[in-house]
Amino acid sequence: MNRKLKILFLCTGNSCRSQMAEGWARELNSDTIEAWSAGIERHGLNPKAVQVMAEAGVDISTQSSTLIEELPEQDFDYVITVCGHAHESCPLFPGRTRVIHRGFDDPPRLAATAKSEEEVLACYRRVRDEIRAFVLELPEILSGTSSCSSGASAD
């Protein structure tokens, strides 16, 4: 029996992108991944993130915004930073933990100029779907990872 990979999704405020990634990992890859999420700061769980994930059939409403220091001691296999600030501020992890960066746009920032609630939700849905696609490919991406930091992309 193979051990599940312990993966931490790290974002600035653990309110949106990292929460979505944790939710998708639990939904799509629970047989191979033990997913966690945390932030450098605590911004609270974003209600619009909860709403658009629920539209896709994933309930993240019971997840909470957690500071990285509050996590129980874990020996993570991977830390995946999902925003530039978290990547730049990522603490050092002991052991063989590999840090990978895959930045996603910040839904609240995207939605700042939206003219209607539907446009706001469209911003969140776009990022939700991009994170889903990434998480679906995650087992393949990780099987090709050999360095401590790879997979950089634009935020």
Automatic annotation (TrEMBL):
- One GO biological process term: response to arsenic-containing substance
Q: Does the keyword Metal-binding apply?
A: no
Q: Where is the Phosphotyrosine protein phosphatase I domain?
A: 5-137
Give the record's keywords alphabetically.
Arsenical resistance
Pfam families, alphabetized: LMWPc
**What's the protein here called?**
Arsenate reductase
The source's superkingdom equals Bacteria
What InterPro entries has UniProt attached to this entry? Ptyr_pPase (IPR023485), Ptyr_pPase_sf (IPR036196)
